[in-house]
Design goal:
303 residues; 13 helices; 73% helix; mainly alpha; two-stranded antiparallel sheet
Length: 303
């Protein structure tokens, strides 16, 4: 985050433009290279060039969020934005990540509201694009393969023993089994210390990890930190940030670099907005002074 901030301070809007277009290019490059090089996979779920499918899903979500946040301050052609939706949605489909796909629907809705594009023409465009996307998912070879993989994944989840709840499957049970650690935290690592369903493994949750590993002080500091990133920004930026945090309810993403880069975009945009407001105030002040001088000159001529 500090590195991103230092680049912004040195290059300003050049850094913002470069970051936005680099995200689009990186997503396209992932897809192109996946047809030429060996990629990772975890059963029915693709991972492209990441370690596991969850990382690919989170990457697609964070990449799209970065573009949408930066698009509010710089002029990115709407076609590039729509291509971004297609590229990162494709990556999320490859990962068969229900959390990532659901979060992208939230991002798309926030984008429509934030840009006030609920005109008849734009709604028609959304219907056409959505219809083509639906046909692509349901009728194309890729879409049929995704449906099959999703069905297999759902069947695999159904084979989980009935007595094992989602709370236990994600590792949250160590919170209820060891509530004393919620005060000052258990620290990370040494997972064999805990009575939990997923032994010798970290919790499948960013928020659960923060609360359990760092206790009340760490959780309070993290919440204050997030608040400091989002304060003084319009409400739709909060909507853009929600999917990033929602994904962390069922997955551990705190070590994922692009997540922190995405968070840094919010204070950068706040600084850009402050610059715009400052320039507007300067121009208004100059206009007011110029108007006063004209009035004074007219008064002197009249005298």
């Amino acid at each position: 985050m500090g590195f991103a901030l230092s680049l912004y301070r040195q290059y300003g809007k050049q850094f913002i433009y470069t970051t936005a277009y680099a995200c689009v290019f990186a997503g396209i490059l992932q897809i192109v290279l996946s047809y030429a090089l060996q990629t990772n996979a975890e059963g029915i779920r693709g991972a492209m060039f990441f370690t596991n499918p969850n990382q690919l899903g989170y990457y697609s979500l964070c990449g799209l969020a970065i573009i949408l946040v930066l698009e509010t301050m710089i002029k990115i052609p709407r076609l590039i934005v729509y291509i971004s939706f297609f590229v990162f949605s494709y990556l999320a489909l490859v990962s068969v990540s229900k959390a990532a796909l659901g979060s992208m629907i939230i991002l798309f809705g926030a984008y429509l509201i934030a840009n006030k594009i609920f005109s008849f023409r734009n709604i028609l465009a959304v219907i056409v694009v959505g219809g083509l996307g639906f046909v692509g998912v349901t009728q194309s070879e890729f879409g049929k393969r995704f449906q099959e993989n999703l069905e297999v994944r759902n069947q695999n989840e159904e084979t989980r023993p009935d007595e094992i709840t989602e709370w236990e499957y994600r590792g949250y049970d160590r919170i209820t089994n060891h509530p004393e650690y919620l005060v000052f935290g258990a620290g990370e690592g040494g997972y064999n210390r805990f009575d939990t369903y997923i032994t010798n493994h970290e919790m499948h949750s960013s928020f659960g990890t923060i609360a359990f590993s760092y206790g009340i002080p760490g959780t309070a500091l993290f919440i204050m930190f997030i608040f400091s990133l989002l304060k003084k920004l319009p409400w739709y930026y909060l909507i853009y940030s929600l999917p990033l945090f929602a994904y962390g309810v069922t997955h551990m993403g705190l070590r994922f670099t692009i997540f922190w880069v995405a968070l840094m975009m919010f204070p950068i945009i706040r600084m850009e907005r402050m610059k715009v407001d400052f320039y507007k105030q300067v121009l208004a002040r100059r206009k007011h002074i110029k108007g006063s001088e004209i009035k004074t000159s007219k008064s002197q001529v009249a005298v």
